[in-house]
Amino acid sequence: MVLSKGKDTAMAELILTEEEQAAAQWKDLDDDALGKLCKLTLSGLDDQDKEREAIHGYSAALLMVILAARMNATTYKQTINGVTCDGKSLGNWEITCKKIEPKTKREKHHE
Question: Helix or strand or coil: residue 49?
């Protein structure tokens, strides 16, 4: 996998090997290729406007919801230790998503 980002463009070029192109999902990529893809995506966040940042956040959250649903779980928790960005330590993080049950008629009535 070759990833590059031009100085004068916010677009990145992703060139996949034949094996990577044949991979059915991101989980089939090797750790190195997946890491490079994540790093490139994160490096582009600084260049993007608020709308694109919101899309990335929504996409990450949606991925967690889908993972929880596939496991028939109502909550999904992911811990990420030793997060760094631009050489700055951001510490350890725990991200949780939780299914919210629909409100009952009584709960809606008391709002």
Answer: coil
The pLDDT tens digits for 2-14 are 444 444 444 456 6
Structure tokens at 46: 């600084």
CA distance 72 to 41: 29
- Residue 67: phi and psi, rounded to 5, are -60, -45
DSSP-derived 3-state class of residue 2 = strand
Find all residues with CB under 8 Å of 74, minimum gap 6, and list them.
68, 98, 99
Task: For residue range 65-74, list pLDDT tens digits in order.
Answer: 999 999 999 9
Q: Which residues contact 23 (CB under 8 A, 6 or more apart)?
A: 29
Yes or no: say if 77 and 96 are a contact pair by the CB < 8 Å rule.
Answer: yes
- DSSP state for residue 8 in the 8-state scheme: T
Output the CA torsion sign for 51, 52, 53, 54: positive
Residue 33 CB neighbours (<10 A): 19
